[in-house]
Specification:
It is elongated, with a radius of gyration of 26 Å. The strands form 3 sheets. Strands 1, 2, 3, 4, 5, 6, 7, 8, 9, 10 and 11 form an 11-stranded antiparallel beta sheet that branches. Strands 12, 13, 14, 15, 16 and 17 form a 6-stranded antiparallel beta sheet that branches. A hairpin with a 5-residue loop joins strand 20 and strand 21. The chain starts with 5 loop residues before the first helix and ends with a strand. It is mainly beta. It has 2 domains: 169 residues, no CATH class; 154 residues, no CATH class.
Length: 372
């Protein structure tokens, strides 16, 4: 069934070329057309470092002015939207008008869709209903777990003001596992104790050999058997003495875990390989994790090998840093997210190729994936 939204016709005629799915809300009031000489709408760019732009955790949609770079320019981003939960439930999006941050609620979508429930055409209503934002976007293919907004238009309309139009680019993706949905505090009725009620029984303690979910633990040396070590040595050319220094496990469930196996040591860095294991029989049932690279970019290490990795299994991220020199003035940072299947999905690559003598934190290397 084809539905149309009168707001889309008023705000952006070309949006009518797509079918539009409307939220079950009363029809929004149409803003009156601005009078000649109406005041301009003071849409502002967010400043880099603004708390509204924190994309370090969870999943977000960000849209910036097409002729600006959010990694280099102090002012670039026009629109930011936080997504929560595995189904990417949208929190109110935010734009800045004058000195105020204005919340937006998405009320209609149209056209083709992509990851993170992005659509080619999206309509947002301002809190209070006195204005609307229309996005007309060209969506790129999903790369890893990121979606690029290759180009598009953003139009902002408010009662009595001139409409604001801008050419935009953007992207959607997750820097860590999705943030949890907010929960309302549970209301518990007070029940008076009865003499006949048996006392509560404490849950049995966990089995000693089964680590708690998403916890780091030391793998017993006997579990990393000689046959397993030999396979790692042959496949990745790992140093047998380094492999004896100890394997670290990161539990995913009572039956599966990711093992970080030390592979080699160098002057200022060390390398590791990762395996998804069945904890009851790790030598017989395991899979070495692949380390996918970004399209068009060469990885700094051999397939499956990560340099100086740091693991945050609770956030389901693994970050590897490969330095070209010990002073840390050049190199590559790769960040992966651990999927529900226990695999690595690339979410970020930063690269500084020029060794200029200026030591730089890897997190500040230029971003090369996903492209901005």
């Amino acid at each position: 069934m084809r539905q149309t939204n009168p707001m889309l016709a008023v705000l952006l005629p070309f949006v009518m070329s797509a079918s539009v799915s409307m939220a079950q809300t009363p029809p929004p009031q149409q803003p009156a057309p601005p009078k000649l000489g109406a005041p301009e709408l003071e849409l502002k760019l967010f400043e880099k470092g603004d708390k509204e732009l924190d994309r370090s955790k969870g999943c977000t949609v960000a849209i910036w002015q097409a002729n600006r770079d959010p990694e280099k320019d102090r002012y670039a981003v026009l629109f930011i939207e936080q997504l929560r939960g595995n189904n990417h439930v949208r929190e109110p999006a935010r734009i800045r008008i004058g000195a105020n941050v204005v919340p937006l609620t998405r009320i209609a979508t149209g056209g083709k869709s992509s990851g993170y429930d992005l659509h080619e055409h999206q309509l947002y209503r301002m809190q209070g209903g006195d204005g609307y934002v229309v996005l007309d976007l060209k969506l790129g293919a999903i790369e890893g777990e990121a979606v690029e907004i290759e180009s598009g238009k953003m139009m902002v309309s408010m009662l009595g003001k001139e409409a604001f139009r801008a050419s935009v680019k953007g992207g959607a993706g997750c820097m860590t596992a999705p943030l949890p949905l907010p929960h309302a505090p549970a209301v518990t009725a007070k029940v008076p104790p009865t003499p006949s009620s048996p006392p509560p029984v404490a849950p049995p303690p966990p089995k000693a050999d089964v680590p708690a979910i998403f916890e780091r633990y030391t793998v017993k040396p006997a579990l990393f058997s000689p046959g397993f070590r030999k396979e790692v040595q042959q496949k990745f050319k790992c140093n047998p003495e380094v492999m004896k220094t100890g394997v670290i496990g990161y539990s995913l469930s009572e039956e599966s875990a990711i093992w970080e196996i030390p592979c080699d040591r160098f002057a200022y860095q060390g390398s590791s390989v990762f395996a998804l294991v069945y904890v009851a029989a790790p030598e017989k049932e395991h899979t070495f994790l692949k380390t996918p690279g970004a399209p068009g970019l060469k990885r700094p290490t051999d397939p499956g090998v990560l340099m100086s990795p740091t693991v945050d299994i609770k956030m389901r991220t693994v970050t590897a840093v490969t330095l070209s020199r010990g002073i840390g003035d050049c190199g590559t940072l790769e960040k992966f997210r651990v999927t529900a299947a226990g695999e690595f999905a690339l979410v970020e690559v930063r690269e500084k190729l020029k060794c200029d003598g200026a030591a730089t934190q890897p997190e500040q290397f230029p971003l090369v994936y996903p492209k901005r």
